[in-house]
Every structure is written in C-alpha cells, then in structure tokens.
C-alpha cells in the first residue's frame, strides 16, 4: 500500500520520495524508543508493545520503500544505478554492524548470568519451573537491563536521525529520471496485477525470498549455536561481528565481479559459496578457528545476498517498461514488494526458529540446553539454510534477464527515449510554425 500511495504522490520542491522519508523519521524514532520503555502498569503491557512495534514497522516501511526506490530516480544509467545500489548496501551492512556493536556493548555491560537448571531438563513442566526461576532474578539487575536497552535505543535513534539528515541533504531526485507519476490513473489492484504478472519479477522475487529466509535463519540462530552447540559463550558477539564486517568489506568485490562476469554468474558463485562452510561447521568438532573461518565465509555470501538481488531489480523494471511502454508509475510497487518480502522472511524465520526450539525444549537463559536443542540448532544454521539456498539457485536459474538481455533492454530504452524526445521536438517546431 505504501508503494502504491507513493506512486500517487505529487511532485514537491523536495521531490516525490523525500517527503515520505522526512515525515516518517521522527515518529519512527519515538515509536522505537517506546518499544523498549516498560510502562508501570500491571495489565496491558503486551498491548503497549504490540501497538508501538506495529507503529514502528509501519513507519520504517514509509522510510524504506522510498529510500530503496530512490535508486531509480537519481539516474537513468544502469551502471550508475548499480554503483548506487552497491554503495547503499555497503552502508546498510555497515549500519547493521554499528547498530549491533552499539547495542551489544551497552547491554552487554549489564550482568545477566545464565541459570543452571539441569534438574528441570526433561521434565514435563520444565518451562514453567524455569519461568518461576526467572521471576526470582534480582530486581536491581532487571532494572539495569531495562535502562541499558533504553540507552541503546536512544543512541540508535540518534544515529537514525543523523543518517536521515545525510540522505535528505545529500541526495536529490532528478525529475527527468522520475517516471513515478502515472500518465493515466491506475487503481491499486490494476497496478498490482501488472507488476505481479511480470514473469522475470516473479522469478527474481521468489529467489530473493528463499535466499533471504536462508540467511535470516542463519543469522538469527548463529548466536545460540555458538553459545550452546559450540560452547563459545564469550565469543559469539565477536563471531557475529566477523560475519558483518566480512559482508561489508566484500560488497565492493561483488560489485566488481558482477560488472565483469554478469549478475546471474555472481549470484551462483556468491550465494553458493556459503554451502561447504555451513556443512563444515556442523560436521567438524567444535573449533574456534574453524568457526571464525565459517563466519568470514558466511559474511562473503551475506554480501552477495544483500547486493545482487537488489542490483537485479532495476533491470526487471527496465524490462517491464519495454513490455508496457504506455504504463508508468509502478516503480515504487516493485520496490515495496521487495521490502514486504524482507519483513515477511524475517517473521517466518523468527516463527520457525521459536517453534522449533520450543518443541526441542529450549530453556531461556539456561547455562546449557538439552541434546534436542543442539540438534535443532544444527538444522537451523546448516541443513535448512543449505536446502533453501539450493532452491533459490534453481529459481535464479529460471530468471531470464542475463547480460545479453540486459544490454538489449538498455539499447531499446535509449531508442525509445530518443524517439520520444524527437517527437516532442517536432511537435514544438510545428506549434512554433503555426504561431
């Protein structure tokens, strides 16, 4: 819906996309901070959290969709858009590293010891007993933890404002590149039908969906895997940092790779490179050096998964414009579905992980876990992501826009624009002669 509303937004002196970013940012920061604030009410805390979490996600969508679609409206050149996408994804991953480090350092200073409860493991009411044990945790420590999370939220909110200001002051939409406003009114469902009936987009977004789910399962469970299965309780933050730093540093490499060997080849090589390392970390005995090697290798694939599907999306939009030359203004809808599936896979990943670990008998804040939990964690960080990666590679294989097709589309679009410009000039000449 946000993508559709953006496509109907009138041009302002700030552009069409920037007003959405400007007005959503302050409210998103407020709602994010209130997520971490615990109100002093005996009932209704779940509703408080639900309301502000949904508000935050909605406002982030109002930021993320125009922010992503902005790639299409700063240049018409494919090479410039690819370069902008690479820069954007590099900074996004770097921002993830920074946010993880800030929150980890602030919250990590609060002592929250694990709870040793081997007696409870295997009992039918072990989760209830653990819950009772959790409630007896020192109140002062709980207060410190709450304060630490709010301080971290305030720091990250300040970072949000700084980045939004840099975007607003440093980037300008080029009106001549913007074809966001439709020549004829198109209803929401008409635009949705046009976009979702475009074959290359369906194949690309399906591959993107399974790739995102694979890496979100890996990232979401890797900390627990390091803590309980591998036994590196004091190292998991550094291992996660190694993944994200590796991803940040290798995005420029993948940008170079795709310009020399093509985007489809880069997808095959980049995303599949994680498979042997994901198998290795589960098969081999617990070893800190091997774990760091796997973390760096996973980061290289994470970089490819971050960059390549996003860099392929503008090519799909160009292909759509050639097939529907009289239908404009759907770019934001294309990007909004990418954002939608990013959120969707995050939710699915969280649901799969939570349910799987709950069935296996996971104990919150336990010093150790039952054997079934360790087996489940191995599946969640190795077998399941590998299967999803293989499925995504098959879908990318069906994606029809290779380098040859992309170059043909680029030439055809240039011809269409030149033809449109020449007809416009002839109309102006004819009007001038009549006057």
UniProtKB/TrEMBL annotation:
Keyword Endoplasmic reticulum: yes
Segments for region (Disordered): 410-435
Keyword set, alphabetical order: Cell membrane, Disulfide bond, Endoplasmic reticulum, Glycoprotein, Lipid transport, Membrane, Symport, Transmembrane, Transmembrane helix, Transport
Ranges that cross the membrane: 20-39, 46-67, 148-171, 201-218, 238-258, 265-283, 289-311, 332-355, 375-399
Record flagged with keyword Metal-binding: no
Annotated Gene Ontology cellular component terms: endoplasmic reticulum membrane; plasma membrane
Biased composition (Basic and acidic residues): 410-420
Subcellular location field: Cell membrane; Endoplasmic reticulum membrane
GO molecular function per UniProt: fatty acid transmembrane transporter activity; lysophospholipid:sodium symporter activity
Reactions catalysed, as given in the entry: a 1-acyl-sn-glycero-3-phosphocholine(in) + Na(+)(in) = a 1-acyl-sn-glycero-3-phosphocholine(out) + Na(+)(out); 1-(4Z,7Z,10Z,13Z,16Z,19Z-docosahexaenoyl)-sn-glycero-3-phosphocholine(in) + Na(+)(in) = 1-(4Z,7Z,10Z,13Z,16Z,19Z-docosahexaenoyl)-sn-glycero-3-phosphocholine(out) + Na(+)(out); 1-hexadecanoyl-sn-glycero-3-phosphocholine(in) + Na(+)(in) = 1-hexadecanoyl-sn-glycero-3-phosphocholine(out) + Na(+)(out); 1-(9Z-octadecenoyl)-sn-glycero-3-phosphocholine(in) + Na(+)(in) = 1-(9Z-octadecenoyl)-sn-glycero-3-phosphocholine(out) + Na(+)(out)
One of the GO BP terms on file: carbohydrate transport
Topology versus the membrane: Multi-pass membrane protein
Entry-linked SUPFAM superfamilies: MFS general substrate transporter
Family: Belongs to the major facilitator superfamily.
Name assigned to this protein: MFSD2 lysolipid transporter A, lysophospholipid
Organism in which the protein naturally occurs: Cyanistes caeruleus (Eurasian blue tit)
Chain's gene name: MFSD2A
């Amino acid at each position: 819906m946000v993508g559709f509303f953006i496509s109907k937004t009138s041009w302002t002196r700030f552009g069409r996309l920037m007003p959405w970013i400007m007005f959503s940012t302050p409210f998103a920061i407020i709602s994010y901070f209130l997520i971490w604030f615990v109100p002093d009410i005996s009932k209704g805390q779940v509703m408080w959290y639900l309301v502000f979490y949904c508000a935050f996600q909605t406002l982030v969508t109002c930021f993320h969709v125009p922010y992503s679609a902005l790639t299409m409206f700063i240049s018409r050149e494919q090479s410039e858009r690819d370069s902008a996408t690479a820069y954007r994804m590099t900074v996004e991953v770097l921002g993830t590293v920074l946010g993880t480090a800030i929150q980890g350092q602030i919250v990590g200073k609060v002592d929250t010891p694990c709870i040793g409860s081997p007696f409870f493991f295997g009992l039918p009411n072990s989760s209830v007993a653990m819950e009772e044990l959790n409630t007896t945790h020192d109140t002062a420590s709980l207060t410190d933890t709450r304060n630490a999370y709010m301080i971290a939220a305030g720091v990250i909110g300040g970072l949000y404002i700084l980045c939004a200001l840099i975007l607003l002051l440093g980037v300008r939409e080029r009106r001549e590149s913007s074809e966001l406003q439709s020549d004829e009114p198109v209803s929401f469902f008409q635009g949705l039908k046009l976009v979702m009936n475009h074959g290359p987009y369906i194949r690309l977004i399906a591959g993107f969906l399974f790739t995102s789910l694979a890496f979100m399962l890996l990232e979401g469970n890797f900390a627990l895997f390091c803590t309980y299965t591998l036994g590196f309780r004091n190292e998991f933050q550094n291992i996660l940092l190694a993944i994200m730093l590796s991803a940040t540093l290798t995005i420029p490499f993948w940008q170079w790779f795709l310009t020399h060997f093509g985007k489809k080849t880069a997808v095959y090589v980049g995303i599949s490179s994680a498979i042997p390392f994901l198998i290795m970390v589960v098969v081999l005995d617990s070893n800190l050096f091997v774990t760091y090697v796997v973390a760096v290798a996973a980061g290289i694939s994470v970089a490819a998964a971050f960059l390549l599907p996003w860099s392929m999306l503008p090519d799909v939009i160009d292909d759509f414009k050639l097939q529907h030359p009289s239908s404009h203004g759907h770019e934001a809808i294309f990007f909004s579905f990418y954002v939608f599936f990013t959120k969707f896979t995050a939710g699915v990943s969280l649901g799969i992980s939570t349910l799987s670990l709950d069935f296996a008998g996971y104990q919150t804040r336990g010093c150790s876990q039952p054997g079934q939990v360790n087996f489940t964690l191995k599946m969640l960080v190795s077998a399941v992501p590998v299967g999803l990666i293989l499925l995504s590679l098959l879908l990318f294989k069906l994606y029809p826009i290779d380098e040859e097709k992309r170059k043909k589309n680029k030439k055809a679009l240039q011809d269409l624009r030149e033809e449109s410009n020449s007809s416009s000039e002839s109309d102006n000449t004819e009007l001038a002669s009549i006057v």
